[in-house]
Every structure is written in structure tokens, then in C-alpha cells.
Amino acid sequence: ASWSRTCVMSAASCDPIEAADLEALLSSTLSEAASLRAVRDPDEAPFRSRYTERELLRELQQQASANAAPLGLPTPPGGGGGGSTERARFIEAVAAARLGANLMDTEEGSAARPLLEGAVAVLVAGAGARDMDGAEALAIEALNRLGILAANREDQAASLALLQQALERYEPARRAVLARADALSAVGDVRRSRRQLSAGAGAESADREAAEEEAAAARVAADAAAVEEAHTLTCFYLAQAHGNDGDVRESARWCLRTMQRQLDRVGGGGEAGGGEHSFDAHEWARNAASLSGYYCGEGQYAAAERCLHAADWVLKARRAEERRRLQREREVEGSALPGGGGEGG
User: Where is this region: Disordered (predicted)?
Assistant: First the structure.
């Protein structure tokens, strides 16, 4: 790519770059940011990787801002008109949302708030739009984080209102991702029919199309998973917010909803120990037991029993998962021994 990481802190000093180069910068920045979030920093520098991530995200935000030229100014190169400008504004909002999350990680909530608020307006408007993949989940995530910040300010009414907005975004977000999946499937069907009619011709083009379809399907699947994960967190934060507001019944209801969604994820092939927002099986079981006690006190014995059965299932699933992990480790160790991994003879 022709772009280079030279954009300084002021967006005014950033020159617009080609639209394709901005896309490359987006892809590389998000990939590097994900790697940095996985780093465990030493106790003496607990936020070192977060600060590195922040600089990358700021650069992306400023470059996208330079490409999203204000009305009346020349269109950025390679833009092709308003579509490129809107895309650049969307990328700027993505960077702002990620920056807001980064600042919250480093306990700088006051600086995170305006970034998240600005991002939400763009992301909500772009949800479901063409070339705005990922807007749905990011909008919910940003609203979730704004709800947390309001709770930290002890503004429970604002926190509940923001989380309610996140809740209301879930169904439209889910439908938007499903619509993209349906559209992608329809395009794939047309392309496959065309390839069958011209069998043997343009093999290279067919391979390229197949690779594009696979990559697009992977993006849609990732968007769907992100929407579901963000909604689960909305449920979790609503349980906390209602608890802070003194509404024990609503808090218990949202706690149960959260735990059911976590359980469904494990039952659907996920792992209790995997993913950035995964849950600890033993802590989950303790929470289920506590919730069972609450429902017993309310006389809702069927709900209490379901909680206990679920706790038992999660612990058994966790033990089975641990046994599989140990078995895999033994197999790896055995194959590393002399004669252990070769063919018999």
C-alpha cells in the first residue's frame, strides 16, 4: 500500500489518502489493536499495550477525518463522490468508538464519553446501510459503555435510559445482519449459476469470486456474533443497573436472561473459557445458585430448579472440556516422544 503512518495529532495536518489506502489502514489498525488487547502487561506498566493501541486508533481517526472532507471542500482522491465521504465518516466513528473503549480501559471515563457519544450518532445512522458493516454491534457496544459511564457518575436514570436504547437497537441490528447474509447468499447463487453455465472458462475469475464470497460470509458471521455478544452485555448491565436502582425483581430477571444467553452460547458450541467476554464456569454456577435462592424466596420454585439444573450442567460441561484439553495435551506430548508420532513399521 502507498499509505504510511505519518499522520500527526492534528487532523488538520493530515492529507487525504486514497480510499483503498484508508481501507487498508482500517484493516491493519483493527488487527493490530486486537493483538494489543490480548497482551498481558506487567504490573508495573498495566496499560502499556493500551497506550500503544490508543496511538494507532487516534491515527486512524485523524486520517479518516481528513478523508471525510467538510462540505464545500474537494472530495478526497479515489473517492468517487459522497459514498467515499460517508465511508470515511463511518471509519472515523469506528475509530472513535474503539478509542472510547480504550480510554475506559485505562480509567479515563471523562475523555471517553464525548468520543462514544459522537460515535453513536454516526453508527446508529449507518446501521444496516451499505458499506457500514459492523455498525450495528458497535452502536450497541458504545451505548453499553455510555450506560456504564452514567452509572459510574451515579446517574442511574441516565444509565437505564442508555441501556434501554442499546436494548432497542438489538432487534433492528439482528435483522440488518440477517438481511446482509440473505443478500450475500443470493449473490452467491447467481454467481454459481453463471459459473455452471460457463464451466471450464475463467477458472481464475471463479476462484477469485469464491474467495470473495468466503471472506464476505466470514465478515457477516463475525458481525452476527458481535451483535449477540453486545446484546448479552446489555442484559448483564441492565441487571446491574436495576440492582443499583433498588429494583431487585428486574435485576433478577435480567440476570437470568444474561445467564441463559451465556448458557445458550456454550450449548451452541462456544466455550465457557473462550472469547474476550467469556464467563468463568464456577462463578456462573455460584451466581445461578444465588439466583435460585432468590426465586425460592419469591415462591418461584420452577425457576429456582432451572437455575440449579443449569449450574450443574455448566460445571459438568466445564469438567468435560477440561478432560478434553488434558487429553489433547497428552496426545501432543506422546507424539513428541521418539517414535511416538511416526508411522508404525
Answer: 66-85, 324-345
How does DSSP assign 249-286, residue by residue? HHHHHHHHHHHHHHHHHHHTT--TT-STT---HHHHHH
* pTM for the structure as a whole: 0.80
User: Which letter does DSSP use for residue 11 in this model?
Assistant: G
Displacement of CA 146 from its chain's centroid (Å): 16
Nearest residue to 166 via CA among 238, 243, 240, 244: 238
Residue 37, judged by CB atoms within 10 A of its CB (0-12, 13-18, 19+), counts as: middle
Decide if 142 contacts 97 (C-beta within 8 A). yes
Whether 99 contacts 115, CB under 8 Å: yes
Residues in the chain: 345
pLDDT in tens, 19-77: 999 999 999 999 999 999 999 999 999 999 999 999 999 999 999 999 997 544 454 44
Asked if 287 and 255 count as a contact pair (C-beta separation under 8 A), the reply is yes
Q: Which three cell numbers stand for residue 99?
A: 478509542
DSSP state of 338: T
Q: DSSP for 71-91?
A: TTSPPPTT-TTHHHHHHHHHH
